[in-house]
Amino acid sequence: MKVYSPPPDKSITIRALLLGAIAEGSARIDNPLFCEDTEAAVRCLEALGVKLCRDGSAFIVEGRGLKGLKKPGGPLDAGESGALARMLAGILAGQDFSAVITGQGSLLNRPMSALAGAMKNLGAGIKTSGGRLPLSIKPAALKGSRISGVESAQVKSALLLAGLYAKGPLEIKEKLQTRDHTERLLALMGARLIKQGLRIKLEPGPLTARPLTVPGDISSAAPFIAAALLSGRGLKIEACGLNPGRLGFITALQRMGASIQLKAVAAFPEPYGEIEILPSKLEGRTVKAADVPAMIDEIPLLALAAARARGNTVISGVEPLRAKESDRVESTLALLAALGVKAAYGRGALKINGARAFAAKAPVRTFNDHRIAMAAAAASAACPGLKVENPDCVNKSYPGFWKDFKKVFGA
Questions:
Q1: Is position 297 annotated as part of the catalytic site?
Q2: Which domains can be identified in the chain, with CATH numbers?
Q3: Among residues 37, 297, 369, 404, which one is catalytic?
Q4: At the N or C end, where does the chain have fewer CB atoms within 10 A?
């Protein structure tokens, strides 16, 4: 059985950098991810006067406290990272200076209205450009608030970061359970935060820098999980994050009959451990919309697994995928079509006909979307000769992907 260790978690790395920047004291972040998105975070923080340095495979962040950031000399460029743009907006809403957040490529077309609308409940002086970037943020007196129906982990995180600056408690009620990396890091740094089910209460106040080791990224491991199942090979994954809000892909595969075992090694601030995948026969299933947030990055991979499963699969609630690096509904359908798989989209759901053997009908277009490129790699484990256009788009989140994939699967 092959053994694989995924790269560090991108979501946690970005959050650790941002929270470290506004904490009091110096924080060491061990095992961070170095990629295009995290490099954009570093550049934005440096433009805000934060001192960061690399110490081997670690970052040292000199925190400036909640109000210690400086006015940037120009717009802050979030690259193509929606997480960075939205969470940075939460921090900037509490500053005493104006700032502008912009981005590159697909991020310029991604919706920001939900973020702005939620932030205005706190009194934030935030304005979009026709519902998209650039974001203009002006100083404002933030107030405590009760906000219900939050659907996005990124919007929730922005609200929590802004809530640190408010003059009263912030209460959030999520519509669906989303990943809780921000809450865990806030708790680690001493924030007065209480989480009960879908409800979160945060009292404003300072953070204290704490050391952190970033676990492996389960979203980066997911293509390897899919490839193992598609090709009928066993695989053991080590030192991988096992955050409950990120396990939807594994849970869905287990419901389809996949033999996947999890073994936790640690639980705080982030659970991580081992994942073991054994050859399995899959059955088509219906996936509810409520289950999608926990596997939002893995839907293309789940669609591939569904294509090889016996029977048909319906994945509801995939509309949010239309505003990712690509229209990920259309790019997933294009990937399936390139493999000779029949699938369709309607009323917010993907419908995939199962029991299909993959055939390289055409080169796979990635649409410059790293998740589609990695899904194509997973498909190639069961479809030798499959060609992938623009494979280097994986550098956004996983620069060493193709080297690691070849080492494990020889493709």
A1: yes
A2: 9-213 (3.65.10.10), 218-409 (3.65.10.10)
A3: 297
A4: N
